[in-house]
Amino acid sequence: MSPTHFTFSTAFLLGLTGLAFHRTHLLSALLCLEAMMLSLFLALSLWTLELNSTSSSVSPMFLLAFSACEASAGLALLVATTRTHGTDHLQNLNLLQC
């Protein structure tokens, strides 16, 4: 395994373990998701550079666009839950309640 592959897989796994174990606040969960998306974007960008193919050079931009949409939707949910519940603690949120 090359050092770049090890770095990207480690960054992705750190984001995944942060998402799995540190679920106290909604903001920390969103940051872990963004770290995972950033590591996937960098890995996909370097993969297309290694292949020197023009057909797959647009896929990192699609991933970046979807990541930006996911971040804006997550921040909108963060603002909405903070306004309605008064906090962003995930333990205080009950999804079955209207």
UniProtKB/TrEMBL annotation:
Q: Which GO terms describe its molecular function?
A: NADH dehydrogenase (ubiquinone) activity; oxidoreductase activity, acting on NAD(P)H
Tell me how this protein sits in the membrane: Multi-pass membrane protein
| Predominant cellular place of this UniProt entry's protein | mitochondrion
Residue ranges of the TM segments: 6-22, 29-49, 61-80
Known function: Core subunit of the mitochondrial membrane respiratory chain NADH dehydrogenase (Complex I) which catalyzes electron transfer from NADH through the respiratory chain, using ubiquinone as an electron acceptor. Part of the enzyme membrane arm which is embedded in the lipid bilayer and involved in proton translocation.
PANTHER family the record matches: NADH-UBIQUINONE OXIDOREDUCTASE CHAIN 4L, NADH-UBIQUINONE OXIDOREDUCTASE SUBUNIT ND4L
Name of the featured protein: NADH-ubiquinone oxidoreductase chain 4L
Organism source for this protein?
Odontobutis yaluensis
